[in-house]
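Troubleshooting entry. The earlier prediction with adenosine-5'-diphosphate gave an output that would not parse, so I re-checked the input for stray whitespace and re-submitted. Clean input:
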Amino acid sequence: MTKKIDATPKEHIGSLLHSVRFRLVLWFTVILAIILFAFSAFLFYTQSRNLQAEAVHELDRRVTSLLEFVQSALSQGIGQISLPHGLLRDTDVFILVSPDGQVLASQGPIPAQQVLQLVSAGLQSNPRAGEGSVVYWTSTSSQNYLFIPTQVHNQMGMDLVVIFGGILDPGALVNRFLFTLIIGSLLTLLIAVIGGFWLADRAMRPVKTITQAARAISETDLSLRLNLKNKDELGELANTFDAMLARLQAAFERQRQFVADASHELRTPLTIVNLETSRALETHRSQPEYQHALKIIRAENDFMTSLVNDLLVLARMDAGQTAMEKNPLDLSDLVVDTIERLTPLAVRNGVTLQAGNLPETYILGDRQYLLQMLSNLVENAIKYTTGEKKLVSAETGSADGTTWVRVSDTGPGIASEDIPHLFDRFYRVDKARTRDTESEDDPTLPSGSGLGLSIVQWIVQAHGGEIHLESTLGIGSTFEVRFKTP
Ligand code: ADP
């Protein structure tokens, strides 16, 4: 177990800054900020125009009602004009001026004289301006006033001037709107950051689980699984990870079993060699006794040599270090070669080794490997064939795009429960029988370690072929290897 050392705050911040969570939130926030800015800018542009128009309209409405009121009051000959409550706003200014400049009525926060001065100055500064022209003025409290002088007539037909002053300041409203937009956007961003972190944290939690589990897995204990039940992408990743672990575990297990079996296989011949040498050396022996001991030692040595060779072949196959040179080959030619090479062994075993039908059939393959495959099959057939009529035959043929080779024997056959395991490494149907026959009756007989058929299967598969076995107990077995005809 690795001991977890507490990270310093600096390391903590460092790891946070490099985390996917942080980057996700950062990108999310930046994109949201851009969207918010664009949206606010659009809203601000359209809304400020609307507010401006709204303010002008509102002012216009007040001027119209003021003029209507004053005009009707003057028409009725009312001298003392007092405006009804609510007609104007508190900030609005109203002044009624006689033709000689006398202020007849006034209302509002700005002194009438000041308004008169402003209006007359404004009108004078613009020589073309007549009555009704507007005058803009910014008060000391930074409020933009708009003064509108309008000519009215009283009952006697005298020209009077009504000056209306009102604040035309959509700016305040616009500013308030801008402020709301900024605060709203900032709040949205803040919530987005907090929510984003929360979401990213939740989304990344399975990753943490995976990391912790991966940390806890050591090569000696591959049994740990993540077992993440999520149906999302991370669940899929965890499942893939679990499947990979299962494959690794199986591979490690196979490897361990392979080494254990190999050591076990080597232990018996080494013990026999040790026993035989100790027995021979114990006391003075006759020459036939020495010869017998040496024969046994040689047989065990042969067994170990072939075992080590087989192990080497399998190790190379497992490591993918087998370079195959595939050429068009006549399968019957390979069968003939194998029969010729193994005839002495068959003779020694009292087995009749015969070639069956051998028409020319071509396949694409590696000569050396295919010869080894055929040797293993024929050697097995010779090795395990017992009884009266000892016959082993090999034949080839092709039909429907398939080329095949068959090796048949009149041996003991293989029980159906053994067939599924037959191609497993180190699997032997009857371990005792194999070794007894070798060492006692004929020590020169090829020894069996249970690797031959695994190698055969590997070679067949490497050529894209299939191997089938038909066997009847007490009658014999037929191994058939099928290849695709090129
Ligand atoms: P071995 O090196 O022991 O022969 P193989 O992998 O070649 O190992 O074969 C595995 C087992 O299958 C053998 O131990 C034997 O019991 C059985 N077997 C293989 N070929 C035959 C056969 N032709 N007839 C009967 N049994 C066979």
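This one parsed fine. The chain has ten helices and twelve strands.
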